[in-house]
Amino acid sequence: MNESARESAERYDQYYGPMFFEPYAIEVAGRIDPSAVSIALEIAAGTGRVTHHLRKRLPASTSLIASDISEDMLAVAKEKLGHLAIDWQIADAQQLPFTDNSMDLVVCCFGYMFVPDRPKAFAEAYRVLKPGGMFLFATWDKLENNVASYIARSTAKKYFDGEIPESYNMATSMHDEAVIQPLLKNAGFSRFSIEKVQKDSYCNTSKEAAHVLVQSGSVFEEIRKRNPAYIDEIRAEVEKQLSGRFGAGPMIAPISAVVCQAWKE
Hints:
The chain has helices at residues 3-30, 49-57, 71-81, 118-128, 147-157, 177-187, 206-215, 218-226, 229-246, and strands at residues 39-43, 63-68, 87-90, 103-109, 129-140, 191-203, 251-263. The protein has a single domain (3-263), classed as Vaccinia Virus protein VP39 (Rossmann fold), CATH 3.40.50.150. It is 45% helix and 23% strand. Helix 1 packs parallel to helix 2, helix 1 (3-30) packs across helix 3 (71-81) and helix 5 (147-157) packs antiparallel against helix 9. With 265 residues, it is of the alpha/beta class. It has a 7-stranded mixed β-sheet, sandwiched between helices.
């Protein structure tokens, strides 16, 4: 296994998990009716934050398949949750290795923004769902509504030579209902809800939050390649702004995501 990729997955879980993903893992799991699910599929399970809450929410008799395209991400998830009844599988959202009409529930948190062929991925979710089954997923709202991340990106822009490429905005590329709705309709879903859900992002201190925000990501990796010294400058400036706005610690900042539910009829 690629050790650097494994370390990257561990850092992803350690730093980003509590600050950004945990609040929505709880939110998404809470939207499920456990009595209606005998078999569930999670797509883009990553390091297992949502998986953990799904397993707690669903009855012991429910089969839970947690899938991801990254072997390294799943390795971290299995290390944490290996004691639980979870079927771990490497799978591509665009070509799911499951039969038609086989799942009561398909869940995906913060994965579809990065899928190259979204229409195909949504069609696959529809295909594997049983009639009456629910498709439940979350994507990030626009950057301005995720204030700490917006502060970090705005600070980084000053150190970036030229315009930041549009490809670096992939994480927030599905914040608009006008983007999501056609994907659902074209896949076959006629009944669905799309809503923006605000949460609080918690971090022990603004200093720690600044470290998390500048730790990784395409923009910061590119700046690091050009001049590693800039990263420390950016981190100090982000800490200053976060501390000024939210206090030194604990830091509680607003975050926002789009949560969607769709039913196969």
